[in-house]
Amino acid sequence: MGFTVKQAEKLIREGKPGAFADGDGLYLKVGATGSASWQYRYQIDGKRRMMGLGSCSAVGLAEARDKAADARKLVKQGIDPLAAKEAEQTAAKAMSTTFRALAAEYIADHRAGWRNAKHAQQWENTLAQYAHPKIGDKPIAEIDTEDVLGVLKPIWTAKPETASRLRNRIELVIDAGRAKGLSAAPNPAAWRGHLDKLLPKRTKASKGHHAAMDYRDLPAFYRRLTDERDSTSATALQITILTACRTSEVLLAAWGEFDLDARLLTIPGERMKAGRPHRVPLSEEVLKLLQGIKGEGYVFPGARTGRPLSNMAMTQVLRRLGHPDLTVHGFRSTFRDWCAEETHYPNIVAEQALAHTVGSAVEAAYRRGDLLDKRRALMADWATYCTSKPASNVVPIRSITAA
Question: pLDDT, tens digit, for every residue of 206-216?
């Protein structure tokens, strides 16, 4: 049957292109460049197929015959040996691809489509802090519901917003793996019809709002904050309060975005929640703070070169001053409540100051301005209020809930 080892070696040595039959579907294939390999040719479901068995330099005649015999047995059972090989390779890849590696792939593949760099950083940070320590080294095919609950339960009620986003990110990463054939099991991080039966709805666990300071307590707090002036984090918090900006809008601010002569900060659209540029009028108090820290690059640089101050920096100031229950974002609500309770500025002016989208798309089309002059007056009054003398020396700190 077929040729001998010497005959095979001669065919390889001569390098004459062609496919030489050994029998029962096994061929020695010599290419135009003289390269030689083994092939098994078969027919299944009426289709002719060819399966490579390896290079002749690595696989001898006896081994090639054994491999062909194994494939032939599968064909007799109605199994396509190529499909079986692919399934085996996919299973091996599934067992070697960890959640951590798959998450890194997902972020890299989607980064260009996300609105800004901060979004990718949030993905990386939440997964690294909460998911990777527990499921990062597990293949996704082995991650089950209990694993996902183990990640989510410790923060589900304490940090509902973070937990909700984390669950969604885990679900997306696992779905990506399922799309790549790395798991055929249902997604253990799916919410509807699955985790919604095992975890309380976020609205029941928490209102999802940011704890905020009562505006009547703010002047006393701001005075204490002024005493922390040697702290870059405290100054960042002061400017965040005075501008009613979001945390990231202040921490990622660069000097090139400021026009101190025009008393204006222009935040580019890619750093804004609504995706549109936002002009922030600067009060005299803000200008005074900026003049004390003026430099290059980020206004509030972090400990690592080329990086801004950490997201936790201002939160740490709140904790240091005895307010672990409050959030930096909550000062936006403090500002909004002050506007409503203590001023006569129209609602639209206050909402524009917070960079909120107001009204319908039709209204927005007709209202092309951003009410800068009116907002400039509002922010000047707000700064005057923040820096005003407290009503008494003993002021209780009241907390409210910010939307």
Answer: 444 557 889 99
The interaxial angle of helices 284-291 and 372-386, nearest 10 deg, is 70
Region 311-318: mean pLDDT is 89
Cβ burial 21-36 (10 Å sphere, 16+ → b, else e): ebeebbbbbbeeeeeb
Tokens 């002047």 belong to which residue?
219
- The pLDDT tens digits for 218-233 are 999 999 998 875 688 9
pLDDT digits (tens, 9 = 90+) for 243-291: 999 999 999 999 999 999 999 999 998 888 778 889 999 999 999 999 8
Decide: 302 and 309 in contact? Cβ < 8 Å: yes
- Secondary structure of the chain as H, E, C letters: CCCCHHHHHHHHHHCCCEEEEEECCEEEEECCCCCEEEEEEEEECCEEEEEEEEECCCCCHHHHHHHHHHHHHHHHCCCCHHHHHHHHHHHHHHHHCEHHHHHHHHHHHHHHHCCCHHHHHHHHHHHHHHHHHHHCCCEHHHCCHHHHHHHHHHHHCCCHHHHHHHHHHHHHHHHHHHHCCCCCCCCCCCCCCCHHHCCCCHHHHCCCCEEEECHHHHHHHHHHHHCCCCCHHHHHHHHHHHHCCCHHHHHCCEHHHEECCCCEEEECHHHCCCCCCEEEECCHHHHHHHHCCCCCCECCECCCCCCECCCCHHHHHHHHCCCCCCCCCHHHHHHHHHHHHHCCCCHHHHHHHCCCCCCCHHHHHHCCCCCHHHHHHHHHHHHHHHCCCCCCCCCCCCEEEEC
Q: Which residue do the tokens 């936790």 mark?
A: 312
Task: Report whether 181 contacts 90 (CB < 8 A).
Answer: yes
Which domains are delineated in the chain? 5-94 (3.30.160.390), 97-205 (1.10.150.130), 210-402 (1.10.443.10)
Signed CA dihedral, 357, 358, 361, 365: sign only: negative
- Residue 202 banded pLDDT, cuts 50, 70, 90: low
Around Cβ 286, how many Cβ atoms within 10 Å? 23
Model confidence at 352: pLDDT above 60: yes
37-74 burial, b at 16+ Cβ within 10 Å, e below that, comes to: bbbbbbebeeeebebebeebeebebeebbebbeebbeb
